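A favour, since you know our structure tokens better than I do. Could you add the entry underneath, on a fresh line?
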Amino acid sequence: MKWMLFLMVFLVLVSGCSKTQLAYSNKIDFDDVKTYQDKTIISGTIYKSSVTQNSKSMYPTIPVTSTILYTKDFSYSNLYVGDIIRFKVDYACDKTMVEATKEYGSETTLHRIVGKKQDTDGIYYKTKGDNQFFKDSCKVRLNDIEAVVVGVIY
């Protein structure tokens, strides 16, 4: 059980990342994870969980109806390329993506950060589903982000 949890968290940590940059490098320390026969405790922070939407945009990293562990404790300083975020999409920017998200019964999208840039309005992120060919068209600002994924329970 302990190794299975480690393997699952490890896969989320490294999938989709370049050789020089690891996602979640400062989200959960290995020493903070304690596994027991009937439970797992991650000390330091209380992480919330939810079942993912029925979209396959993050497959195979996050299969349909997996349970994600996430935190709402984040800022510009601890969001990195490779992190998976849950965010709202502006209807004016991409109405097709908003409508597709609602079709799956959700108000938010779960995609990976693939770029961090700055314009006259400040820092923004570019995102992409792991199972998609193209980056999302919208700029995702910090106030659009609702949560950062720290683990997946398969």
Summary: Confidence is low (pLDDT under 50) at residues 2-7, 10-24.
